Amino acid sequence: MNQSGYMAKSPTDDDLEPPAWRRLAKDAYYVLIPIVVVLVFWQMFAKMSGISPVLFPPLENIWNALVHTATEGTLWADLGGTFLRLFKAVAAGSVIGTIIGALMGYFRDWERAFVGPLNFLLAIPGTALFPLTMIWFGLTEMAILSILIYEVSLTVMANTWSGVKSIDVSLIRAARAFGANGASMFWRVLLPSAMPSIISGYRLAFSRAWRIVIIAEMLVSVSAGLGYRLFWAREFFQTEIVYATLLTIGITGLLFERLVLRSAEAMTVNRWGTVRELE
């Protein structure tokens, strides 16, 4: 109670949370510091090791190659091509995996029908199917997209199945008591309750697809893409472009994971208390 005779309002969890800009600055600090340390050691080793710059170029050579590809437009064309393939596959695979995974988690017959094939296919990495897809579709975009959709749909399916299956039975019974069934049960109860697991599945699926699309672009004939640029630079022994492309792949994946996927997870998983945010 304060001096005016009113009860003081106890702070809530939102009041105790640090401002968004401070959390963002803290995340940026912990992300950038290791990168800076690695770059410093890289430059020292490149200058002092005596290794030819053709094999281990210093940072200024890599930076010049990165600026050159950005200036002539190949960098943006490669980024656009890779992300276009990635988003097509992630969108299609996420829809397929979410629907089938939710049905597996809610209906026993669906679970019995799909759990065996799911476990079988999860044991086969997507990269192992490249020879088969190239036989089916040739060296085309469809060979890449089919592998990506395969990997994304299986990952999302497994996470969604686990999330729906772990929903408290009393919650489902209460929803039925209030008349929820069929589509209303699916959209209003199952999906919201399993959303933390589903979001985690999306995040994991994207990270897997990101690695696979780079490999696929090195094997399949495409006109633009980060993997294609790696293969092209290796063919012409342009080491600086190889390192610049690898740097682009790492930074782009890191930024997308931290700014997009991590933010989506924070709005669901951490906020709903399923996973505790580390201090």
How would you describe what is shown here?
This protein is mostly helical. It folds into two domains: 20-50; 55-270, MetI-like fold. The protein has eleven helices and no strands. The longest helix is centred in the C-terminal third of the chain and has 37 residues, at 183-219. The radius of gyration is 24 Å and the shape is globular. The chain starts with 12 loop residues before the first helix and ends in a 9-residue tail after the last helix. The relative contact order is 0.11.
CATH class division of the largest domain: Mainly Alpha
Domain count: the total is 2
- The proportion of strand residues reads under 5%
Find the structural class using helix and strand composition: mainly alpha
CATH superfamily of the largest domain: MetI-like
Largest sheet, in brief, is: none
Q: Estimate percent helicity.
A: over 70%
CATH architecture of the largest domain: Orthogonal Bundle
Shape label: globular
The tally of helices reads 11
Low-confidence stretches: 273-279
How big is the Rg?
24 Å
Instruction: Give the H and E element order.
Output: HHHHHHHHHHH
